[in-house]
Amino acid sequence: MSFFISEAQAQTAGAGAPPGGEMFQIGFLVLMFALFYFIAIRPQRKRQKEHAAMVAALAKGDEVVTTSGILGKVNKLDDAYVVVGVTDNVELKFQRSSIHAVLPKGTLKAI
């Protein structure tokens, strides 16, 4: 049993880190974070700002698509909710954030 312990001590005594290895690891981590920021975080924030601006600019009569894929025309607006007219006498109430896109005028008639 003592044979294995002395062997392990001999291995750790001879192993040494190469000079400058810590700086390389820190530099690598900083580079990876910067890459992750420019690939994932920054574009997502840009999309969130665009969506918030689109939701804030909603007006009565806009033709919209919800995140669930329902097409309709905005009939009423509230601070937190939007009433979307889907067909005659059918209105659905959605949260403002569930509006996915605003369509060009006349899209619903073309479909």
From TrEMBL:
Protein topology in the membrane: Single-pass membrane protein
Residue intervals passing through the bilayer: 23-41
Pfam families, A to Z: YajC (PF02699)
Keywords linked to the UniProt accession: Cell membrane, Membrane, Protein transport, Translocation, Transmembrane, Transmembrane helix, Transport
Entry's localization field: Cell membrane
Annotated protein name in UniProt: Sec translocon accessory complex subunit YajC
UniProt gene name: yajC
Chief localization: membrane
